[in-house]
Amino acid sequence: MVNQIALTCGNDSTAPGHIHWNMKALLRNPNGVADLLRDEAYRDFALVPASAWLGHEKMETPLLFQDGRRARWQSKTAEPRWWLVQTRRGKVWSARLLPGNQRSMEVDAAADTITVRGVNREGALSEVTSMEWR
User: Fold this and answer.
1) Where is pLDDT greater, at 81 or 76?
2) Which of 35, 48, 61, 96 could share a disulfide with 127, CB 3.0–4.6 Å?
3) What is the pTM assigned to this prediction?
4) Is 126 helix (H, G, I), strand (E, B) or coil?
């Protein structure tokens, strides 16, 4: 099952995604399949696709500042539901989803780039703002 999911999630895949039809099988965890999915296929979080049909407020590109080892950001207009904060160390990206009322976080000293996007309640993303981290 993990390999099948990897195929649908691969860069060359034309499949829009996948679903698990029978939740009972995952809850029973036969042969540790739910554990494998958690540890392999779903180890990174994913945002729910935007619900464009609900309409959405236009999210402005956030402002981003460096304050020592802390990144600080703010919205020019409305507070988003979430902040998607991504950091890069060399070629490896990591992401955190933070509450909309959080405006800063400590950044790993090894990070070289940080990006921030607002996520509204419909799941729409703002434009990205990024900076080289020193």
Assistant:
1) 81
2) 61
3) 0.77
4) coil
